[in-house]
Amino acid sequence: MYKEWTLIGALTTSGLPAAIYALQNSLLQISYKNLDSLTFSMLNRTKILFTAFFTYLILRQKQSVQQIGGLVLLILAAVLLSVGEGMGKGSSGSDADLILFHGIIPVLVASVLSGFSYSLCQWASQVKKHSSYLMTVEMSVVGSMCLLASTYKSPDGEQIRKHGFFFMIPVLTNVVGGILVGLVTAHAGGVRKASRILRNFVNM
Question: Are the CB atoms for 102 and 30 separated by under 8 Å?
Fold first, then answer.
């Protein structure tokens, strides 16, 4: 892998998805604070629809009629639940604006970015035959550089400076999760992976 590795190839296959993930995570952090857990989780699952859309644009992979029907039903369920929760929570105009602009819109933008990045990762692993392990390392390096700037003024940055980098347990879980997601995306594709997660969530 080292002999075949090039900086241009790494930036092409891993650089853009890593930068997108960094922005996506920042948007999700904003939404966490302004949405209840059910609304956030259901809106976050709309990334399945965007994954299917970008997979078609980038890889030309079409979904069957049954898959499209299933996606539409899942998205309708997510939207209906989210609208109901959002209306129940927003008792005043200012509360409704806060939920909309600092909760719903950021998580929807993050879902669009998630679908785009999933498709790029699937293209890199299935078309370019880029190793999932190598891609995880490359994305970690690029993503870390993108996020380092934000740690200077963020609460997370304060905690890291005070207690050390590995004080943040999500750092460790994301490392393991990144490798597993890469393997699943390479073998099953982004749409099937995201659909399985949503089905498990609904069954709960």
Answer: yes
